[in-house]
Amino acid sequence: MSVEAGSRALLSGGDVVLVRPLRPADTAEVLALHTRLDRRDTYFRFFGAPSGLAKLAAEIAAEPGPGHYAVGCYLRGALIGVANYEVLDGSTDAEVALVVDAAVRTQGVATLLMEHLVSHARATGLKRFIAEVLAENAKVIHVFRDLGLRFDPGLGGPERDIVMDLEQDTAYLDAVLERDAAADAASLAHLLRPSSVAVIGAGRQPGSVGHAVLANLVTCGYRGPVEVVHPRARAILGVPCAPSVAELSRTPELAVVCLPAPAAAEAVEACGKRGVRAVVVISSGLTGTEAGDRVRAAVREYGLRLVGPNCLGVVSTDPACPVNVTFLGAPVRPGAVGVVTQSGGVGIALAESLGDLGLGLSTLVSTGDKYDVSGNDLLMWWAADPHTELAVLYLESFGNPRKFGRLARQLARTRPVLAVRSGSGDTAQRAAASHTAAAATPAVTRDALFEQAGVIAVDTVAELVDVIAGLSWQLLPGGPRVAVVSNAGGAGVLAADACEREGLVMAELSGHTRERLAKALPAEAAVRNPVDTTAAVAPEVFAEALRAVLDDDGVDAVIAVTVPTACGDPGSSLAEVLPPEYKTVFAVRPGQRARVTPLVPGGVTACYDDPAAAAAVLARLVRYARWLNRPETENSSPPLEDPDALRAFAAGREGWLSPADAVELLRLADVPMVETHYVTADDSMAAAATDLGSPVVLKADADGLLHKTAGGGVLLDVHGADRILEAFRTLRARFGSALRGVTVQPMAEPGRELLVGVRSDPVFGPLVVFGLGGVDTDLIADHAARLAPLTGADADLLLDGLRASKALWASGLDRAAVREVLLKVSRLAELVPELAELDLNPLRVRADGCVALDVRARLERPAAADPFLRHLRD
Length: 874
Description:
Blueprint: E1 7-10, E2 16-21, H1 27-35, H2 39-46, H3 53-60, E3 68-75, E4 78-87, E5 93-100, H4 109-123, E6 128-134, H5 138-145, E7 150-152, E8 159-165, H6 170-192, E9 197-200, H7 209-219, E10 226-229, E11 235-236, E12 239-242, E13 254-257, H8 261-274, E14 278-281, H9 290-302, E15 305-307, E16 313-316, E17 323-326, E18 334-341, H10 344-356, E19 361-366, H11 375-383, E20 390-394, H12 401-412, E21 417-420, H13 435-439, H14 442-453, E22 456-458, H15 461-473, E23 481-486, H16 489-501, E24 505-506, H17 511-520, E25 531-532, H18 539-550, E26 557-561, H19 574-577, E27 584-588, E28 596-600, E29 603-608, H20 611-628, H21 643-650, E30 655-656, H22 659-668, E31 677-679, H23 682-692, E32 696-702, E33 714-718, H24 721-735, E34 739-746, E35 752-761, E36 765-772, H25 776-780, E37 783-787, H26 792-799, H27 805-810, H28 815-831, E38 835-846, E39 849-852, E40 855-859
Parallel strand pairs: 5-6, 9-10, 9-13, 10-12, 13-14, 14-15, 18-19, 18-20, 20-21, 21-22, 23-24, 23-25, 23-26, 26-27, 27-29
Antiparallel strand pairs: 1-2, 2-3, 3-4, 4-5, 6-8, 7-8, 11-12, 16-17, 16-19, 28-29, 30-40, 31-34, 32-33, 32-34, 35-36, 35-38, 36-37, 38-39, 38-40
């Protein structure tokens, strides 16, 4: 749904409204809203008795244009609020005004309308909002103050000129997301804490989906009233029936639809007309059909929250309101794990696997075809849910990944967030037109999103269960230093190898620890890491060895590998040692039947069947702990001196920039670039040779030439005007009519060649890529990526994210200079949303600085959507 047609959004109490631009046809409703104002509101709005209300209404509802914009908020078809701005002549300032119906004054209508005005004003280049407000109008002043914008309340007196700076910053985004989360949680309560439920399509006989849904609801402990919609039955499973939604004895807060596609659409429409607040559509076969379109239209028209269609359903084990409207085959164990999944099969597998471990769910929402409720909704719900201690996501697609990243980052600061990666294949990646685009595959972009948001990513449901088990019964590790203690030397070596493969550090045991081990263990034991107690030790001796290792200050975590022998089972002693209150310990019992199981009933720690599984979980937990301890710094690059000049240069341009324009783009962005001349003819080539002096390098600018060196498009160390002209003729002969021109640069000082680039995705936003450059770009393919905007910590992770990073920076290259380029490129991507691709390759780095030797840049019209504007899926 286009912005012009409006978008659904949530008020603070959870009501769904429509916000859309106003047009002349809305004049009568705008006038009626102003006419309904009481005397006090009229005084506040007009500073006295109003005059010319009809004229004012017409001006507010005028066609949107460069100097005017107005939006209205509609609740169930009625206009309940209006906000508009008028641009002040010859400026980037606009005067703003708003009116809200008194009946909904406390529902956040004014704030929501202001957010929409802010988003539109920014997109058109406005810098400030100005509002003339009576000093005694405290409510409106609070609306402006609480938006999160930089705010100047104006001078004292009876009238205030309030000024709001429209420049986007984290304070504003945080304020918007906080309001979004509160409203979203209020709306999801209709789904997860409903006061009454109706099941539409429950059959009388077992074996149908609808019957299973009703049975689960009846047996889960739900205490609210339940009814069934069935055309003939009087009662099913003891639950009273009504022949239609309209004939239910009460309006249910939640309805569950289990009907064939055409009938499902009719049922959703009937629910909307009856005033139902939320619907779960189990039915499949709607998407891509007229019935599916009808469901979407009903969601929009009646302000419904909807899960599905084509879904497993919804579970909440909140003891205050347990509800299970799924067709799961077994009861759901209450617990602390919240799950949102597009795949019903993944939800079933996860519920069963966690139940086998003695773990349970707080929430399970199967979004199916995701017409409305999505993963972002559940991230906001869990942030306020005291029953959810761990969040799990299986998402096949992202509707709004930039919002997801910010929400997931906020949630991951308080509890672990796990995601199953799906769709990792890059077969859909189009042929790349730059080195950066070749590196910025969909999987790379998704993984960058997860890493920056602190999401623990896995590839399979089995790995997901492994990590959940590890998180559920142990502390996060204090660092990457791991010790292995085993009574089977070979298994201990395998564990040590697995730890090193996962990037963990094998801890160096202290002399004191080794002495304790030597005293406790047989002479033939290995007292260095990995510790081999030998197979002959009794369980209590193994336990003493484990205690000694845990007491070592140089050890952050321990993997204890045990096998039973004729001398006893050391694994039986672990529960006596655990849980240590300060160290992470995982058990491994090779050959156990289950992939992972609690060491003892009730938990204590996770016990894995293979050392590699334990090491993989430990490595993920170490990375998460490291992320939690990262400073939350913002972009530390200094502000650009003239950002407006940069934006003006990019405005209106599309396609690949000429070499000269690409160099100018870098100059305006303050990114270092070697002195560059671009020429297209012999006489100008001679002039360039005179300007630059000798020696020079010539680079061909030719259609289809991406890899200049490999394609014969680079001539190095050319001396003298005659030779420069000869080299130009050589390139012209080599590329013929494909040659557009030649870039001429002085020979740069020797150094290491790196790559820095940007690839902008219309959904994910700009991705900054860093890696080895020059001829190594394709030969070695060593690169890392992060989504813009980069923080200083993000830039450091990029610099350390290559396989070659350790050797690269040990060679004495200017790391600080490259870091500054990364931050400047990130800033460029933020300031110029038109930047689709940027390729600095090579970036020549020395011990005392760095400079780009070549640049390619492509601009395209940016997507108009604001990823942080509050709205629901349409």
